[in-house]
Amino acid sequence: MKATKRLLRGIAGVAGAVLLALGVAAPLPARAELRIDITRGVVEPLPIAITSFAGAAGREAQIGRDMSNVISADLERSGLFRPLNPQGFLQTPEQLRSGEPRYQDWRAIGAQALVAGSATMQGDGRLKVDFRLWDVAAGQHMAGLSYTATPDSWRRIAHIVADAVYKRLTGEDGYFDTRIVYIAESGPANARLKRLAIMDQDGENHSFLTDGKNLVLTPRFSPTAQEITYMSFVNKRPRVYLFNIDSGRQEVLGDFPGMTFAPRFSPDGNKVIMSMALNGNTDIFTLDLRTRRQTQLTDSPGIDTAPSYSPDGSQIVFESDRGGSQQLYVMGADGSGVKRLTFGQGRYATPVWSPRGDLIAFTRQQGSEFAVGVIRPDGTGERILTKAFHVEGPTWAPNGRVLAYFKETPTGGGRSARLYTIDVTGVNERRVVTPIDASDPAWSPLIP
Amino acid sequence: MRMKILSLFAAVLLVSACETAPDTSANQTGTGGAQTSSIRPGSQEDLAVNVGDRVFFGYDQYNLSPEARGTLDRQAQWLQQYRNVTVTVEGHADERGTREYNLALGERRANSVKNYLVARGVGANRVKTISYGKERPAVVGSGEAAWAQNRRGVTVVD
Description:
Strand order of the largest sheet of chain B: 1-4-2-3
Region (Disordered) (chain B): 23-44
Main location (chain B): membrane
Mean pLDDT of chain B: 84
Largest sheet of chain B: 4 strands, mixed
CATH architecture of the largest domain in chain A: 6 Propeller
Structural class of chain B: alpha+beta
Strand content of chain A: 35-45%
Helix content of chain B: 40-55%
Oligomer: heterodimer
Number of strands of chain A: 30
CATH superfamily of the largest domain in chain A: TolB, C-terminal domain
Shape of chain A: globular
InterPro entries (chain B): Bact_OuterMem_StrucFunc, OMP_bac, OmpA-like, OMPA-like_CS, OmpA-like_sf, Pal, Pal_lipo_C
Subunit structure (chain B): The Tol-Pal system is composed of five core proteins: the inner membrane proteins TolA, TolQ and TolR, the periplasmic protein TolB and the outer membrane protein Pal. They form a network linking the inner and outer membranes and the peptidoglycan layer.
Keywords (chain B): Cell cycle, Cell division, Cell outer membrane, Lipoprotein, Membrane, Palmitate, Signal
Radius of gyration of chain B: 16 Å
CATH class of the largest domain in chain A: Mainly Beta
């Protein structure tokens, strides 16, 4: 808890601290400006030189070095950038800070983009971070920004810098200044201990939010990233709960006669949509967080669950076995106009609408194999991104470009559960390293 | 000679029982009838050993097989005998499904068991239900043998 609170104070520090933009994009040159075309499937990662942000000595030097490493790791993990080895750099960070890059030195080592910056401790104890980005081939300055914040939020500023570089070079919003909430697992499969846990998207700043006394499942972030809705078996009464990250306070949501589960926030954060199972029937309900009013949206005798709103809040995708097997359906936010979305072979589950609105991710179960895929909201363009013995529960990075999910692998007498991310085109699958086994990831929005 | 034939007969019966009903295979239930003396009547152990505390379901199914109904008939009789006992029926699913769907499926299974017991005269207020989905397998392992044991409804004395 302490770590979380400290982080949140850091976040507040950054929020009020974006001081000024030092430079804006230069007018378009005659040649096409440096940009990664990520509309195509597989791209050659862009070679980028990221120089050290290290200041003079002591803490400044350490923070600066660490920041460069975080920026470099973020960009590399995206699969769209190839950070070059700093040992080959011909111009020093100090030379870059005082003047223009010697472009030919950077071209000589194959760099197409160059990042330089500095981390300086100010007299008031705050940390000032400047960074600049250049297009090496065109010999042009592309972007520059300056931030001040508390020194212990250096890691967050590094992610913000990486997001700025990503956005300038891809034209799409970044996703590095985000967190992932998930379920940390330990113990034997028949008495699994499950705890809510939270970390930065790169696995750092890890902390546990619950102690494991109660079975907890399927956490999801609110649009402000300040709250989490999840399911807990407190007092053997499985219900949907709300967890406030700042205060640590937990409360049951609504007063339902049956088990509630599969919660998600509405995009405006005013409602939580969920399923309730009662007398062998599962339907979808919303709970208005201000008025506490409960509204029933589906009324089929089947299992209607895993609801997820479109980003504009006008539609809901969910899974139902009303047609005989688990398939995806879309309906209006008031429950009207239900339309079946999937007709493929196998069972379709855990739909989740992309923050961009253009795709719906899902879990598909076919024969002995599980897969994570995407489909357009009109039911066309179904694509499978990854298959395994068991993959489940995709969640979107806020830019709609990367997904996370969990993968279970049978081991001798048990199984391992791990988190992975993958590009929406189905390439660049990466493990997100967690201290212990992990499942049910949920990606936060960009931290406000 | 006669003894031999009898024991062969018994062995055949045991084998066929194993094939059709996983609840009589080498699990903790069903086959421990020898030392019933130390078991407290009306307890969970009594239910598990002398009656059968669980029923099994087909893949993605929640209807009760003839074997399951047999077990539940005995559970209903037992519950008539121990009228102070209240129970919770736990519904479980195997791991070959998604988490949220399996929670709903477990609830359906628990509800099937409850409905059957109530239809056999057990007061509805004596039977609660809870679903654990795929979260609490009885048997650890990946394969149909384990999964068949995990798709279950377990009657637990409160």
